Amino acid sequence: MKQIDDPLALELAQRIRDTRLDKGLNQAQVAEQLGVSVPTYSHFENCTRSIHAGILLRLPEIFDVPISTLLPTSVVTDHDRYVTDRRVDELLAAWPDFTEAQRQALLSVMRCFRG
Fold first, then answer.
1. CB-neighbour burial class of residue 14 (10 A; exposed 0-12, middle 13-18, buried 19+)
2. pLDDT given at position 114
3. In a domain, 1, yes or no
């Protein structure tokens, strides 16, 4: 399967993988908690399949980290944790299959990082 050619999606996939490894979890453990197969979860980390909003929103709980840990640094700035509207739009564009409810849920979470 071909890798998704989107810098935001690639960075998100890498940050998810790095966080999983930092937490000492294997793909099977995370896949089980998400209720997906190991190959499906592997596709998310390898950026060969878009991650669904519901999965993205559950990962911080599984990893016991704030969502900002997983989001690409171009979306959440390192120095002040603010999220810009333009970057939010870019992130949402990376997942065109999000429903409006999923988009609003993600925006709500991301707005928590605004000052």
1. middle
2. 47
3. no
DSSP state of 76: B
Q: CATH number for the domain including 40?
A: 1.10.260.40
What residues does 76 pair with on adjacent strands? 83
Domain that holds residue 27: 7-111
| Cβ atoms within 10 Å, residue 81 | 14
Q: Contact 12/70 with Cβ under 8 angstroms?
A: yes
Look up residue 27 and give its amino acid: Q
Predicted confidence at residue 75, as pLDDT, reads: 54
pLDDT band at 78, cuts 50/70/90? Answer: very low
Report how far residue 100's alpha carbon sits from residue 22's, in angstroms, rounded to the nearest whole number. 32
Burial class (CB in 10 A: 0-12, 13-18, 19+), 16: buried
